[in-house]
Amino acid sequence: MISTATIATVEPARIILRLCKHWGHKFPVSYDEQQGRIELPMGLCLLQAGEGRLTARLEGQPGADMDKFEQVVAEHAQRMARGETYQWDWQRPAG
């Protein structure tokens, strides 16, 4: 199960850094200024920085509650924001 969303943000690299450092205390993570990888119990969270945007790709474990997975990632990213409010529009491939 896969879900992706792209948000507008002036600091995509900062959000990646903060999320990876936050979750890195409990889960395996790797990151640089352009991308992040977080191995959460619900599945894999892949983050990619772009010009004025951050894309998140969630790859859920079999049987994962994808609604919950999306909510957890969105809520944690929002906590890392400095004066921005993010609008997440999660998309899942048909089929």
Kindly describe this structure.
The chain is an alpha+beta fold. It has a single domain (2-80), classed as Alpha-D-phosphohexomutase, C-terminal domain (TATA-Binding Protein, 2-Layer Sandwich), CATH 3.30.310. It contains two helices and five strands. The protein has helices spanning 12-23, 66-80; strands spanning 2-8, 29-31, 35-40, 43-50, 53-60. It has a five-stranded antiparallel sheet, with helices on one face. A hairpin with a 2-residue loop joins strand 4 and strand 5. The radius of gyration is 12 Å and the shape is globular.
Compact description:
With 95 residues, the protein is of the alpha+beta class. The chain has 2 helices and 5 strands; from the N terminus they run βαββββα.
Measured by DSSP, the beta-strand proportion falls in: 25-35%
Poorly predicted spans: none
Mean pLDDT: 94
Total strands = 5
How many individual helices? 2
Task: Output the CATH class name.
Answer: Alpha Beta
Distance between the termini: 10 Å
Structural class per helix/strand content?
A: alpha+beta
Strand order of the largest sheet: 1-5-4-3-2
| Tally of domains | 1
List the helices and strands and how they pair.
Layout: E1 2-8, H1 12-23, E2 29-31, E3 35-40, E4 43-50, E5 53-60, H2 66-80
Antiparallel strand pairs: 1-5, 2-3, 3-4, 4-5
List its salient traits:
five-stranded antiparallel β-sheet, 34% strand, 95 residues, TATA-Binding Protein, globular, alpha+beta
